[in-house]
Amino acid sequence: MPQLQVDVSAPERVETDRLVLRRPALADADAIFARYANDPDVTRLLGWPQHNVIDDTRAFIQFSDAEWHTWPAGPYLIEARDSGILIGSTGLGFETTQRAMTGYVLARDAWGHGYATEALRAIVVIATSVGVRRLYALCHPEHEASSRVLQKCSFICEGTLRQHTVFPNLGLGQPSDIFCYARILS
Hints:
Radius of gyration: 16 Å
Structural class: alpha+beta
CATH superfamily of the domain at 13-135: Gcn5-related N-acetyltransferase (GNAT)
CATH architecture of the domain at 13-135: 3-Layer(aba) Sandwich
CATH topology of the domain at 13-135: Aminopeptidase
Helix content: 25-40%
Order of helices and strands: EEHHHEEEHEHEE
Oligomer: single chain
Strand order of the largest sheet: 1-2-3-4-5-6-8-7
Number of strands: 8
């Protein structure tokens, strides 16, 4: 992959009212694995496979480092600001300097507290600050909570991408329909 010249880099650590978003480090592998990446309920409707061994999580951190090296930002871990407990992850996946994808995953005990909405709002600010014009997210049609988070953060459902994504944790082996939500940033 050719090296890009990145003019603006996102901060590696961002704080919100209740959260800290920060760049993952190799020392985080055990916590990521234990808190959410190895949980079949958490990963069920995600587009990446559940981590079955800690090396899967280490590979994610290597991927994260490569993204941060190539693009203005990459994955972020989400921690509770008051306790420092790992809650989940989010981030930006760049396709071009002006178009990026986002998403989020939270540990089960963090569901229903508004953390995904707060983290996504922070990601929108970060994306805007580094010049992203189109920020989008893909969402499994059965993931109603995720659809609500995207709508709360002013993402518009542009439609259904038919037979688009294989969800490896569903075990179907066939591409599924998926909703595409997007937000145009200024």
